[in-house]
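Final report, Chapter 2: Outcomes

The project's central promise was a pipeline that accepts a single protein chain and returns its three-dimensional structure in a standardized token representation, suitable for archiving and comparison. That pipeline is now operational. To close this chapter, we reproduce one record exactly as it appears in the project archive, with the input sequence first and the structure output second.
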Amino acid sequence: MPCTLSPRLRPFGKSLLTTCLLAAIVSVHSLVAAPDATLVNPDFEDVDSKTGFARGWTRGLPASVQGAMSLDDRLFASGARSVKIDITQAGPDSATLTQTVKLAQPLTTPASGRISCRFYAHEVAGIACLVISTANQEKARAQWVNTGNHRGTFDWKTVTHDLEFNPGTTAITFSFRLRGTGTLWIDAAQLQMPATTASSAAQATSTRIDFTGTVNPRTGLPGAWLEKKYHGNENVSAVNVETLDGRTAVRQQWSAGAANSGLTVPLPEAYAKQPVVRLLAEAKTAGAGEAVLGLECLDAGGKSLGEILAPGVGKESWFTLDRTFVIPPAARQVNILLLNTGAGTAWFAGATILPGDMVEYLPGPGWAP
């Protein structure tokens, strides 16, 4: 899913655009997955139409090895398929199945993680294992851990390993390996990284900002909500609070002018101080209207650092926009954006704010890996 950058973000250059496009690999899965599901396609359910293999995973079968690596929809521990590695003639190298998880920001403190997966084996004469390795800002602090060797024939079993990741960690690689002859099935890979104590309060709560309450006669909107105007659409869009399908919602009607217009409200300070935030918003559109969820970041002087906007969605029944954003370190104020970017109507029924996951994100302005 591509990220849509506001024109106001262009001064940040092509590097941010590239970062956004890379982040989109996380796709919709990253927007709805549980916070501990940091691997893409952990159950191998999503098949890449071009390769016929599990999306997000890389298979390596050395020339010195005879065998095959494929998806198996007949034997699996969960979902509808597993990955099967079948080696009929061994070589000096291992067959590998890998995925690298890049963190949105380097770890600043030690972080506890739990790695787990399911193995099923038939006549493994060599070694089957899961190796975890990390990249680190300081090469000397990079880690390499074999979670344990497995041989022989056995039914599905769970392999778990607890690991403390060093500060400075920037990426974590899962590498399933089979050396020697035999057949290994792999399923249900998972990396869990619980919240640290410092952020546990934020991790435990959510906040909803809706459109109920007294309307401010100056703004025509309740609470701290304001119209978000862009050059070109002053006085040509209409915003109204109304009851729709049992919800108190704000209607944003595009008439002419700039491509974007909508609503904005400050992100509460407790969340603005976190490196990552997740936003949800109930929305509905009509005609060519497109509902967009985003953030605007400002520096200490109140100057906009730019905006990061998720793709627009148009649907004539209520749906939930769900996106995760990285907040750049330079930001001193962050505003939520609920925008209509289409030549039609969009309704919003409020925003819910949650702590975000450090891996599943849309990067903010000025952020670079």
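Archive annotation: The mean pLDDT is 80.
This record, like all others produced under the grant, will remain available to the consortium after the project formally closes.
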